[in-house]
Design goal:
With 221 residues, this protein is mostly helical. It has a single domain, classed as MFS general substrate transporter like domains (Growth Hormone, Chain: A). It has 12 helices and no strands.
Length: 221
C-alpha cells in the first residue's frame, strides 16, 4: 500500500508542475486568446465528467491496479501530447482524454484502499493517505512557475540554450518553454505509471494483501 501511495505522490509531484501552466502556456502561444483557453478548459472538465460517468457504469477493470497504473500512464501521455500541440484542437483533444482517464485511476485506487483497510481505521488511514499524496502539490506549483519564468522560457526563445535541441518539437518563442515542461513531465509520468509494474509489491498488491473482510473471517492468515 505504501508503494501505491508513493506512485500517487510522484505522479502529483510531476504532473501538478505542468498542470499549473495550462493557462499561461495557452495564452502565451495564442496571443492572449481567452476564447481558446476557455474551450480547452471546458473540454478538459467535460473529459473528467465523461470519464466519471463511464466509471460509474463500467465499474473499472477487474484488476484495479491496472486501472491505477495504466490510467496514470495514459493520462501522462496526453500531457506530453498536449505540450507538443500548437493548435486548439490538439490541446482540446489531449486535455479531454487526459482528464477522461483520471477517474479510472482514482477510482481504482480508492477501491483497493477500501478493500484492504479495515473500516474502523479508514478515516485515519485515508486522511494520512490524502495528505501524503497531495502534499507535493504546493511545491510543484511553486517550482512550475519558477522553472517556466527563469529556466525553460528563456532557454526556448530564439537563440536560447535549449532551442536547438527542442525547437523542432515545441517551436520557439513565448510559451515554448512551458510546452517543453509539459512534454518532459508527461514522459516522467508515463515512466511512473509503467514503473509501478516493476515492483511486485505494487503490481500484485491485490493478491499479496488480503481484503479486510477476508482477514476478519480468517484471523490466523
Amino acid at each position: 500500500m505504501l508503494g501505491l501511495l508513493l506512485v500517487f505522490f510522484a505522479t502529483n509531484l510531476i504532473l501538478t508542475l505542468s498542470g499549473t501552466l495550462i493557462a499561461p502556456m495557452i495564452l502565451a502561444r495564442t496571443n492572449n486568446d481567452n476564447v481558446i483557453l476557455g474551450i480547452v478548459q471546458s473540454l478538459s472538465g467535460f473529459g473528467g465528467l465523461v470519464g466519471g460517468l463511464l466509471l460509474t457504469v463500467w465499474g473499472g477493470p477487474k484488476r484495479k491496479v491496472n486501472g491505477v497504473l495504466m490510467g496514470i500512464a495514459a493520462s501522462s501521455l496526453c500531457v506530453s501530447l498536449f505540450g507538443l500541440g500548437r493548435e486548439v484542437y490538439v490541446w482540446s483533444l489531449t486535455a479531454f482524454l487526459g482528464l477522461f482517464m483520471i477517474p479510472t485511476a482514482n477510482g481504482a485506487s480508492q477501491a483497493i484502499w477500501q478493500a484492504k483497510v479495515a473500516p474502523d481505521i479508514q478515516g485515519r488511514v485515508f486522511s494520512a493517505r490524502l495528505l501524503i499524496a497531495q502534499i507535493s502539490g504546493p511545491i510543484s506549483m511553486l517550482l512550475g512557475g519558477l522553472l517556466a519564468d527563469y529556466v525553460f522560457e528563456p532557454a526556448m526563445m530564439p537563440g536560447g540554450s535549449l532551442a536547438p535541441l527542442f525547437g523542432g518539437l515545441v517551436g520557439t518563442g513565448p510559451g515554448a518553454g512551458m510546452s517543453l515542461i509539459f512534454v518532459i513531465t508527461g514522459v516522467l509520468g508515463v515512466l511512473v505509471g509503467f514503473g509501478g509494474y516493476a515492483f511486485d509489491a505494487i503490481r500484485n498488491v491485490e493478491s499479496i494483501l488480503p481484503d479486510h473482510d477476508a482477514r476478519e473471517r480468517n484471523p490466523t492468515r
